[in-house]
Every structure is written in structure tokens, then in C-alpha cells.
Fold:
Amino acid sequence: MNEIKGNFWDVYLNYDAVCCTTNMVVKSNGELVMGKGIAKDFNERFPGLAKQWGERTQEIIDGKMPTNIIVSGFFLEPCRVSFPTKHHWKDKSDIKLIERSAGLLYAISQAIGWKKILVPRPGCSNGGLNWEKDVKPILEKVFDDRFDVITNEV
Structure:
């Protein structure tokens, strides 16, 4: 795993897949709640994504999908990946959910053959977790050198 600094949107086109930290809440209109942070950016940049991810998330909640990771845009570059860190948008991020999401992302990246994956620091902004103490040690055990974890600190 590599740690990089910079603006996510300045570098995202250089990756096979880019991750968006999300929650598991679907609004009554069927859209995934994507109102803050990187999720809000994804929602604004990719029209229809909140609806698509909301439908898939509802299938996960209903037990119709075995994974909490959602991959979209297989024919686009880069692919967009939902990386849940929270069960509910108003809660603090759940370290076990981050660990599960990271493991699933790793497995999917191996199966698809992605060479470069961009991930914002999961759970460390609106999720309230500490990068060094809470999250980094878990991701270091799961991710290999194909994964760049970006922070906007410059």
C-alpha cells in the first residue's frame, strides 16, 4: 500500500479503479445517501450513480447480494467502487466494516486484474476515525502495492 498526497480528482484518471467511501442507507427515492465528503463529489460528478448504488445497496440489505462492495462502470475507466465504511450516514465509521470492505476490494481487484486502485482514507474524514491508529494498520495487512491511499493534505 502506498500513501500519497494530493487532490483525488487531479489523479483519478490514472487508475483502473477509484473508490468512494459510502454508507449503507438508501433513501425513499431509491438513492444511496451521498451527501458529504468524497461521496458527495462522486454523486455530483457521476449523475445517476446514487440511484444505481442505492439499488445495489438495497439488494445487499435484502440479502440478495453476498458482498457489500459495488463496482460500476466496467466499460469505463476508471471503474467506480463503493467502499462502505458506515452502516448509517450519521454514525461513526465502523472499523470492522472497513476491514470487510478492504478485504472484498482486494479480492475483486485480484479477480478483475486491476493494476492501480485509488482509495481515499476510509473512515477518517466524516467517519471520525484516526488514520494512524485505527485504519492504516488494518489496510497495511490487506492492500498490496497496487493500492494508493490518498489524503488531501499537501
In short: The helical segments are 8-11, 37-45, 49-61, 95-112, 131-142.
